[in-house]
Prior knowledge:
Elements: E1 2-7, H1 14-25, E2 29-31, H2 32-41, H3 45-55, H4 62-73, E3 81-85, H5 91-103, E4 110-115, H6 118-132, H7 139-153, H8 155-162, E5 166-170, H9 175-185
Parallel strand pairs: 1-3, 1-4, 2-3, 4-5
Amino acid sequence: xxxxxxxxxxxxxxxxxxxxxxxxxxxxxxxxxxxxxxxxxxxxxxxxxxxxxxxxxxxxxxxxxxxxxxxxxxxxxxxxxxxxxxxxxxxxxxxxxxxxxxxxxxxxxxxxxxxxxxxxxxxxxxxxxxxxxxxxxxxxxxxxxxxxxxxxxxxxxxxxxxxxxxxxxxxxxxxxxxxxxxxxxxxx
Length: 188
């Protein structure tokens, strides 16, 4: 089993790397962004609530996010492992994830943090917004998301480092270059 968390600021390339690495490892890529967008597109009450926060460049509350992640990790395809992208984002979510996994008699194997230059992240997200028409990727919102990441998510690296799970990986370069570094960090 391989249970991996992939971290990094919005626009660091987590989704791209998660798709490639999860396929290579034969485990599902579990993206909170995908879960949120599916709920928004479906017009669910949780989706409408999530949309409000995403449009403001803020994170969806833990109670909503935790419920979505718990349901996803309970699916049969995640029993043999998973790659989480976009969760956890707070120390409280770190604890919640540990509790979810403990209930299943398991724990995380690896936490990989993609490190990137902030200006490069802004450029990536503005380009992605133009290509995909994403309403949550205006420049002001992108900059706010970077601030929120620094304030709320960066402290997770300390927790995971203390647990001996964290490996920082340079997220700059081509997709293939970064993938090679991520797989090396996972010992693949």
